[in-house]
Amino acid sequence: MISNKMMEYVSNSSIIRAMFEEGKRLSSIYGEENVFDFSLGNPNVQPPDNIKKAILEILSEESPTLVHGYMNNSGYEDIRAEIASHLSRKYNLKLTSNNLIMTCGAAGGLNILLKTLLNPGDEVITFAPFFGEYKNYANNFEGNLVVVSSNLETFEPNLEELKEKITNKTKAIIINSPNNPTGVVYSETFIKELADLLNKKQEKLNTSIYLISDEPYREIVYDGVKVPYILKYYRNSFIGYSYSKSLSLPGERIGYIACNGEMDDFENVMQSLNVANRILGFVNAPSLFQRVIGKCLDTEVDVNIYKRNRDLLYNHLTEIGFPCVKPQGAFYLFPKSLIADDKKFAVEAKKFNILLVPGSAFGCPGHFRLSYCISYEKIEKSLDSFDKLAKIYLGS
User: Fold this and answer.
1) Phi and psi at residue 7, in whole multiples of 5°?
2) Whose CA is closest to 214, among 110, 82, 75, 361?
3) pTM of the predicted model, to two decimals?
4) Which residues, 6 or more positions from 330, have their beta carbon under 8 angstroms from its beta carbon?
5) Which of 103, 101, 140 lies closest to 122 in space, CA to CA?
6) Quick one: fold of 4-48+301-394?
7) Domain residue ranges in the chain
């Protein structure tokens, strides 16, 4: 028999992945071109051309031992130094290789962070709606996820509620901006207010509260929106970054953690992250793609492709009656469901070959998520099905 904890995980297996598998089943029946799968955040934009160029250069010019061998659990020091220098120039910081740990994507980064920070029974706070795996990540290390609500008209987190829910068990706060599933970007004003609140709580409780900013979508923003860089606003802060979205490399599992050098117990934290990377079985981030990233630090995908998709889908859905906050970043829409039961609404949508994810999966029932990182043509073709779906509840 499998463990009790894994039995719970299996029974609550990701609805996002389940919808993705359902999409493959429906495609085998109706044809892929007639199934509108908005379930998974799997970028359809091709990686930039110089990614392939960098791979070929590295494989042909560098030593196989260097490219494919082990290195420090934190990653290649020269690559970390290059990333640190890049970030320092971009955000006016003073980071070195000692501030970075290369990770197996943002998910690997979050897990080694929570392994480092949590004792059994410690609490991690996040804001609804949130990426559903946060609960599992905290549970991996016997921590408890505490959820704070957001304003459903703007999806800005409720700081008054946060103030009440921070206790002497609070070890970390996870924020995600640009946000999955809403596409909202937290403003500089909000970040300053959050930092001020956490500083006051640390002083009052005589403890360290670490702020973790989960940022796989940092580079995917629209209309001139800026994403505040957390390390500049709060001393006890980390950034978990991934190149999965910014370079369309989700399967390569490459990212990093950037740490504020002035945080409490910095040296022990960095040593612990290094050890956690090893003992959780990651050992180190993928060696080849560490070196690829070192050659491609100024490279990004063309976000206008996603913006065009956003505008088409957002404008059409709001015109036919779906209330929705306009995304400022990422590649998700999070409209209100046309009935209170978002899971039932997802079942109804399947009748029109639309695959969406109920908001309940993100701790926010009554909504649903659409991932628009698919082709523009597929979105165009889906609009008629959305019309038919809306007509059931809103009439002609």
Assistant:
1) -60, -40
2) 110
3) 0.94
4) 41, 178, 179, 180, 183, 217, 220, 245
5) 140
6) Aspartate Aminotransferase, domain 1 (3.90.1150)
7) 4-48+301-394, 49-295
Domains 4-48+301-394 and 49-295 share a fold: no
Reported residue count of the chain is: 396
Please give the structure tokens belonging to residue 273: 């992250």
Round the CA-based radius of gyration of the chain to a whole number and report it.
21
Distance CA 162, CA 148 (A): 6
Tokens of 152: 């459903």
- Which pLDDT score, from 0 to 100, does residue 17 have? 63
Q: Please determine, looking at this structure, whether the domain spanning 49-295 carries the CATH number 3.40.50.10490.
A: no
pLDDT for residue 26 is more than 80: no
Task: Encode pLDDT of 300-357 as tens digits.
Answer: 999 999 999 999 999 999 999 999 999 999 999 999 999 999 999 999 999 999 999 9
User: Helix 287-295 vs helix 77-91: angle between axes, to the nearest 10 degrees?
Assistant: 40
Instruction: Share the mean pLDDT of the chain.
Output: 94
Say if CB 238 and CB 213 are below 8 A apart: yes
Under 8 Å between Cβ of 372 and 223: no
